[in-house]
Specification:
3 copies of one chain form a homotrimer. Chain A has 15 helices and 2 strands. The first copy, chain A, is mainly alpha-helical. In chain A, helix 2 packs antiparallel against helix 3. Chains in contact: A-B, A-C, B-C. Chains A, B, C: GO terms for molecular function: ammonium channel activity.
């Protein structure tokens, strides 16, 4: 039986934090050094702002869980980037004896962190910070493994592999949420709401993601002699896809509303769907209108997904998805994947190339989906034990479990 | 008679959004392509942050209208940039057969969008999103037309023409607000207030505008051989003008207050007046102290305007200006124009040059004012019809007209 | 006897503002000109965001003092940068006849401003804006004098001298707070609290400081031929120190909590301690794990300081430190200084060099501490007079002293 009162974090969180942090420092002592490569600094800053501030404030929307949303995101991200730097450097350590820190490795680490923050979005409010940390570390391990598998066995390009972060994170999180589902908890989530204040804070997070997404998608695009415009094309495509996405999300939000009104959750989440889809499809998109059409389609499925699939998932499959990661990252990611497939096939000169690409591209998705779902399931089972002392049903979505409120002022 | 209850947006907003968005995509299919020119990326990001986050959160200050303030700004901006890209590219389409998207065209599009957001500031809370969208598209059309007229017939430099965006937007918005004025609505605007929470969100918007304004003013300044320091001079001038402007606005806010206290509205708006004035006058300002004096004068007239002219406008002319665009953008813009005139005359070698410049400079202003006011009037008359179903008087400045609040939490 | 009611700011704030502002403009008229040196623009922007938005919103955490926190920071910063530009240019004025404004001089001015904002943190809520302005100007004067003394007599490098800004600001503020302490005020500070809303705003400030700190520490690092990687090393060291600092602060926050929970104040402040310490120690840190260990130690002493030393200071020494500047800037700064000493000694080839460096390094700290504390005491005595009309005990930490609330909406 789950404990009815939140217990002190004292014997759980600090040991985990210090154990991991000490371990990371030890690895850094022996294996990590600094390399010089300044060119990406400003786009790195944009990605950093998206991961820390964007995801952090996006997670503040729950009315009583905003300290946890922002605070745990910072905590998880601070730990996850170190882990991602280590994991991504394993190969270099094997070959060159050192893990090198440079702008590129930090950008990649922040992207892996973004993937884990997406996964966490599905279980936000129903877990404690220990669980969130472990989820992040396991998710990143899986995602790095997935990238290594795709690059090694399927010769997928690095950029295409890393842009699967949305799909990997979303399906990992969904499986996790499914395993961690608790019977009879639907009625008790009365704190799972938005109010004016937390709504605005989360819109702020949305806007930072929305504004800097062109940097996120373009930062790792490499300029080569054959196609000098790739990097800028990624910037413009993302910009246009997001603009159309914002318009479309507003339109479908009203259209599917029984009262004919806008829904803040859609504005806050589904406006970002275009950035997800174009990120995955990017390498095959050459014209601005294609990017815009992708933005339209992504916002469409994202809004419909939030409105209709999210409640269905809860009641039919007992899968509760706090931040709607299926609709915001999962489905638009798969849409982007499909568009890339179609565009590449349309671009192919002959049938053989097209079929070969299709097989290869479908394998990419299948491996990513299987790995993310299996690892999500395993992580879920590992974290289901009462040993982790998750918050009891009545205390879900509540900061008071985790934060001192000794001097909370009475509202005027 | 105006409808007494807010009606569903369903048959109004989505059709407009999808019609426009589809139209834009069609134009993009046939006419728009990407050009490569990366140099402005980081300053473009600053402008982007100002337009989306700065203007967006500046508009959150009304106590019950903050979702609409931030949300509609995003929606309007997402649509307006596309329209501005198309309109600004018409000439290139005519000559070269294509509209080219590059960093410069996006920066210009965002500046046109800023102009339309200024106009919208005058009618914020008294209109619905359909009206806001149409205002933005018409205002941008007028502003682009104005720039074309000035450049074609008066040989005004492109940078000087675009910096009139504050004047154009403000007077367009004022006329609009005058036409859309509703008898007997003064007593009913009890929701037109600031509280601690929305005040802080809007101060955040102010700070983003204040911090990144040097980029806004300098991004389009071109460095030439005759005057290599122009661009940096624009940065430093704007920086200094804004610093002085913040100090001065605080001083006059206290001085004109019956209780001898600071007024948040002044801190939030009039601190920005220096950036407006210096933006217009920039090309004639060569010394730091001149920039500082402009900042002083701009904040002075802006604060006095907010304190004394805004209520006068309401009662004497029945013109209700929600965001005080006359005081924040209109008057400081005209001040900048006057300073530019005086400095250019003082710089002239002989009387003939001075008189010629004066005539030319006065024509520039007259054309801009006439065009903005006439188009504002026309737009106002077009939108006055009940066909558009504006929010009834009692529902002005209220998010509940437009946003689903099914799960709004009861305040603790 | 202190006045029991807040009096109008009219005869105090505006005269001071206009007197100072006019004086500054006059100095600018005669002595200041613009120099061209664009290279630092983007990092300058990051520092600007930290000073205006970061410090501004960090100061919004008090439940009834958030307008003042953000507003006064803007006001003080706008004035202080001008003063710092003038003071830092005195030497150049003496030798070259002009004070030159360039990116570097603005960055230095903003860092001096940051130092004064740290000092202000110790007396926030217990002073009026006149006092804050004078504190800032005197603190900057002292800090610039300190830098000049260190560089002239001890040949301390410019970068090392300016990075003492945390230590100087913190001890200046502590002495100030000690002198300005009022008997019997402990019970009355019931407004000195955080709530959900102001907590989130201040976390936003924290995140901006946290994200952009790598730019803050690295912007003035000069790349030379002997050590080409210095600048990037400063970026990576700060990044890693902050990541570890965030993790460690969370760990010790829980560990020292009687309820075993996180404390928002620690998350909001102590996560930044790593950036302070590494900023001071930076020039001697060459390996990533050293930076991480510094981040760990800094967050440790910062969290313990906030938990145990802050209350002790209040009851044993009658020194009330609103923002905990001792724990956040003072102690981590001294830690950084100690680490630098140890690392330099360990790096020394022979004993003579080590001893010489130690003597020199200890003198640096002693001069900085003495000067900051003496000037803090003097400033405190100057501002203790009732002439300045500080807010009465009952009105401390309250916006209503300083801000018009005529149209404050009643909370729904």
């Amino acid at each position: 039986m789950a404990p009815q009162y939140a217990r002190s974090l004292r014997f759980r969180l600090p040991p985990l934090l210090f154990f991991l942090q000490t371990g990371f420092i030890v690895v850094f002592i022996f294996y990590v050094d600094i390399e010089q490569n300044p060119s990406l600094y400003y786009k790195f800053q944009d990605v950093h702002v998206m991961v820390i501030l964007g995801f952090g404030f996006l997670a503040t929307f729950l009315v009583r869980y905003s300290f946890s949303g922002a605070g745990f995101t910072l905590l998880v991200a601070a730990m996850a980037v170190q882990w991602a730097v280590i994991l991504n450097g394993v190969e270099s350590m094997y070959h060159r004896g050192k893990i090198w820190i440079n702008m590129r490795s930090l950008v990649v680490a922040e992207m892996c962190t973004a993937s884990s923050l997406i996964a966490i979005g599905a279980v936000l409010g129903k877990t404690n910070p220990d669980q969130l940390l472990l989820i992040a570390l396991l998710e990143i391990s899986g995602f790095v493994l997935n990238g290594w598998l795709l690059q090694t066995f399927l010769k997928v390009q690095f950029l295409n592999a890393i842009m699967l972060l949305h799909i990997f994170g979303a399906f990992f999180g969904l499986m996790l949420s499914w395993v961690l589902y608790r019977q009879g908890s639907e009625q008790q989530h009365e704190k799972e709401k938005i109010n004016r204040k937390t709504g605005l804070f989360s819109v702020m997070g949305t806007l930072f993601l929305w504004m800097f997404w062109p940097s996120f998608n373009s930062v790792l695009v490499e300029v080569d002699h054959l196609d000098r415009g790739r990097k800028l094309r990624a910037v413009y495509s993302t910009y246009l896809a997001l603009a159309v996405s914002a318009v479309t999300a507003a339109g479908f939000s009203v259209l599917t509303s029984p009262q004919g009104k806008l829904n803040l959750f859609h504005i806050q989440r589904c406006t970002l769907a275009g950035g997800v889809a174009i990120g995955v499809a990017m390498s095959a998109v050459h014209l601005p209108w294609v990017a815009m059409t992708i933005g339209f389609a992504a916002a469409l499925i994202s809004t419909l997904g939030s409105r209709y699939i999210k409640p269905l998932m809860l009641f039919a499959f007992e899968c509760h998805d706090t931040c709607g990661v299926l609709s915001v990252h999962g489905l638009p990611g798969i849409l982007g994947w499909m568009v890339q497939l179609l565009l590449q096939i349309a671009d192919s000169d002959d049938l053989t190339t097209a079929v070969r690409f299709a097989v290869f591209h479908i394998s990419t998705l299948l491996i990513t989906l299987s790995l993310s779902m299996i690892l999500g399931l395993i992580t879920g089972f590992l974290l289901k034990f009462n040993f982790w002392r998750p918050p009891p049903n009545k205390k879900c979505f509540d900061d008071q479990n985790f934060w001192e409120f000794p001097h909370l002022a009475v509202k005027k």
